[in-house]
C-alpha cells in the first residue's frame, strides 16, 4: 500500500485544516493510500528523529511513499526528499526557519495540543543542522506558494525552489487558501 506522509508546521498538529482536508480526500477518493500525519515533537531534532523512524520503517517494508509538508513541515519534507529520494510537495514552506524563529525564542504554546515548551538557541542550531543547503532533489519537489503569505516572504521560496516544479498564486495566505482543490494533483505528483 502506498503511503502519504504529511508533516504539519510549527505549533500545529494533525488537526490542522490542510492535514484534515488531505485525510478526507484520501478517505473519499483514494482509500488505497495509507495516510500518516504524526504529531511532531515541538523541537526540531526530536521531530526529525520521528520523521526518520517513520521513513526508515517504510523503506524497510519496501512501501512506496511520498511526503507533503506545510511551512516548517515543508522545510522538513525537503530534507525527506533529499535523504530518501522520494517526491515531496511543499506548501508555503519555511526556507530559513532558523532565521524566522529567532523572533519566537522563549516560552511557546501549541494551540492544538496545549503543550508548553521553551524554544531555545539550541533548537535554532538544530534547524541550521537540518537545512538542505545545496539540494539535489529539486526535480522531485513541487512548490505550492501563495504570494500574500503573512508569515513568510514568498520570494525566499521562489529563489530556493527555483529548479523545482512551481505553482505561485497571487493572494492567499499562510494557511494556503483553497488547498483542498490541490489534493488530487498532489497525489498524482507524488505518484502514489
Cα-to-Cα separation, first versus last residue: 9 Å
Which structural class is indicated by helix and strand composition? alpha/beta
CATH superfamily: Alpha/Beta hydrolase fold, catalytic domain
Strand order of the largest sheet: 2-1-3-4-7-8
How many structural domains? 1
The number of helical elements comes to 7
The residue fraction in helices comes out at: 25-40%
Based on the coordinates given, report the CATH architecture.
3-Layer(aba) Sandwich
Q: Which sheet architecture does the biggest sheet show?
A: 6 strands, parallel
Instruction: Name the CATH class.
Output: Alpha Beta
- Global geometry: globular
H and E string: EHEHEHEHEEHEHEH
Question: Which spans have pLDDT < 50 for at least 5 consecutive residues?
Answer: none
Gyration radius (Cα, Å) is 15 Å
Q: Please give the number of β-strands.
A: 8
What is the beta-strand fraction? 15-25%
User: CATH fold name, please?
Assistant: Rossmann fold
Q: What does the oligomeric state look like here?
A: single chain
What's the pLDDT, averaged over the residues?
Answer: 96
Amino acid at each position: 500500500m502506498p503511503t502519504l506522509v504529511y508533516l504539519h508546521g510549527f505549533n500545529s498538529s494533525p488537526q490542522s485544516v490542510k492535514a484534515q482536508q488531505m485525510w478526507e480526500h484520501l478517505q473519499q477518493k483514494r482509500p488505497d493510500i495509507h495516510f500518516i500525519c504524526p504529531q511532531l515533537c515541538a523541537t526540531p531534532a526530536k521531530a526529525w528523529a520521528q520523521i526518520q523512524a517513520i521513513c526508515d520503517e517504510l523503506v524497510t517494508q519496501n512501501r512506496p511513499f511520498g511526503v507533503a509538508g506545510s511551512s516548517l513541515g515543508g522545510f522538513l519534507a525537503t530534507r525527506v526528499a533529499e535523504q530518501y529520494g522520494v517526491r515531496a510537495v511543499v506548501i508555503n514552506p519555511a526556507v530559513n526557519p532558523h532565521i524566522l524563529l529567532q523572533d519566537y525564542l522563549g516560552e511557546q504554546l501549541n494551540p492544538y495540543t496545549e503543550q508548553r515548551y521553551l524554544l531555545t538557541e539550541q533548537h535554532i542550531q538544530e534547524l541550521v543542522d537540518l537545512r538542505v543547503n545545496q539540494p539535489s532533489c529539486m526535480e522531485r519537489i513541487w512548490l505550492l506558494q501563495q504570494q500574500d503569505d503573512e508569515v513568510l516572504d514568498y520570494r525566499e521560496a521562489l529563489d530556493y525552489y527555483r529548479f523545482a516544479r512551481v505553482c505561485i498564486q497571487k493572494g492567499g495566505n499562510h494557511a494556503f487558501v483553497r488547498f483542498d482543490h490541490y489534493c488530487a494533483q498532489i497525489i498524482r505528483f507524488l505518484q502514489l
